[in-house]
Amino acid sequence: MGYRNLRECITDLEKHNQLRRINVPIDPHLEAAEIQRRVYLAGGPAILFENVIGSQFPMVSNLFGTLERTRFMFRDTIDLVRRLVELKVDPANAFKNPLRYARAFPTAWAMQPKYRNSGPILHTQTTLDKLPQLKSWPDDGGPFITLPAVYSEHPDHPGWQKSNLGMYRVQLAGNQYLPNRQVGLHYQIHRSIGVHHAAAIKHGEPLKVNIFVGGPPASILSAVMPLPEGLSELTFAGALGGRRFELVRQKSGLPLMAQADFCISGTVDPNHLLPEGPFGDHLGYYSLKHDFPVLNVDKVWHRKDAIWPFTVVGRPPQEDTSFGDIIHEITGPAIPAVLPGVKAVNAVDAAGVHPLLLAIGSERYVPYAQTRKPQEILTQANAILGQGQLSLAKYLFIAAGEDDPQLDLHDIQRFLIHVLQRVDWQNDVHFQTRTTIDTLDYSGDGFNSGSKVVMACAGPIRRSLPTAPPSSLQLAMGFKHPALVMPGVLAIEGPPCTSRNDGHLRRFCESLTQDHPIRKFPMCVIVDHSEFTARSLNNFLWTTFTRSNPASDIDGADALTENKHWGCKETLVIDARIKPHHAPPLIEDPEVTRRVDQLAAKGGPLHGIID
């Protein structure tokens, strides 16, 4: 059986040496967040902060800090849940392999929520200012809830069957919010709560919302899970938790999660927005201040032994990387059924997830053709970009799996080498312009607005890739310090960008004469710091794909447009310099860093956990 509540989980982790208690005073203003970031990077245990400055409630972080710990927490149910997802995608699997799925049916019963008349969540009421005021980055607009499970129901279809439990960040205070009466509710495009909110606006009525914090860990993971259409997060949480999800009926308002540690109940006014943010987000930059819905708070509940779970987001990898890993384990095998012909998809964590997708498809349209080229995989690419949150991607590299049956999307460098050896830049680059991208991505044309590009390859190797930078290289004025990122990819420092489309990208490409040594490289990236970009694969992925908008930041040697199709004859160049309209990157407070260093010194409570 899974954990009934967060306290049971913490007890179990401590019993198995997977949790460490810290009893010295810890400040939720920046200090707790920096500790969490460093413990995560060290592969450390979950941390229970027992003495939180300014709040009576302890805090816990890094619960999902390693994939192994996440598997451990759901060790009794995760395999059965994976089978249930397979059945949801293709019910015929039950008949094809009845022995494999026989044990999954009892788990299906646990998927039905169970109603109660009371529960631990109703123990005490409090106010927002009594909650831990967690601030993760110096320029955040205020304290935030970073592991909320936000519950709403469809106004036209009340009840849990059409409900949504999602993880949308919540700003507890700051900006123009009325203290103890309002919180900011930030949800991005392609989120199910938006459907509920749209229905409420249509009726001109407030949307009822409950924000849960804590409770069984299954509810936290369920809130971030991209589930198949028609599968409720509550039912999934019941299956993953190994017990029916408990809800407390309310005479008026939405039901409460019986075992939650905290609940903020209120309504979202259909016509009221307030500035929310800034907030240091998972792309590694601040998402800036924008108008978002406001929750008018009616009540704040907490259980008797309440613990405040939190995480920190920022440039990957962070704890949410483990979320992505476990999501892939559970749902990855279902990809071919959801997207026919697609064998695998990887939303690259190091690039911030949404900016870069890698995919392996199938090229079977004309198996008799002597010369193979991308055809079916372009159809599959369109299907990928039309699928839920995958549609927020900017870059999609897709390869035909038949060319290398051993191709592995998680060996990112090898996959990119495979593409660069085969891609035809004149024919295999396909843009979508003036479309939607991730709300948190400021590289585009405006808020939620940007472009996409598909780069596809199928067929034999067409070029060898250089493995060293050219020994003698004449660069256009202002360009310098070429550095090899990986075979076939060169990083070059460009002049600082002072305006959109400043002309330097085009000038660089025009300088690549027919005999220029850079033309031997199929890809070149223009950056602010080439040494940093080339220092690691992760640096290259983060810099290149978070700081470029395909339609405006891709050019190439001998670029041409024919019948509205863009291509280039040789080197494709990506301008990945920071632009004036980009959001600022996240930088830690050096004074807080020094305090955490002291906690990690010999004799300190974090000694042996972090450096």
> Compute the gyration radius: what is it?
25 Å
Looking at how many chains there are and whether they match, the oligomeric state comes to single chain
Sheet-strand content, in percent, reads 15-25%
Annotation, overall tally of beta strands: 30
- What is the count of DSSP helices, taking H or I runs of 4+ residues? 19
Share in helix: 25-40%
Q: What's the main sheet like?
A: 9 strands, antiparallel
Distance between the termini: 37 Å
Structural class: alpha+beta
Low-confidence spans: pLDDT under 50, at least 5 residues?
A: none
Shape: globular
Mean pLDDT: 92
Report on the structure:
With 611 residues, the protein is α+β, with helices and mostly antiparallel strands. The strands form seven sheets. Strands 5, 6, 7, 8, 9, 10, 11, 14 and 17 form a nine-stranded antiparallel sheet that branches. It has a five-stranded mixed sheet with strand order 19-20-21-23-22, with helices on both faces. α9 crosses α10 (233-241). The mean pLDDT is 92.
What brief labels describe this structure?
611 residues, alpha+beta, nine-stranded antiparallel β-sheet, 26% helix
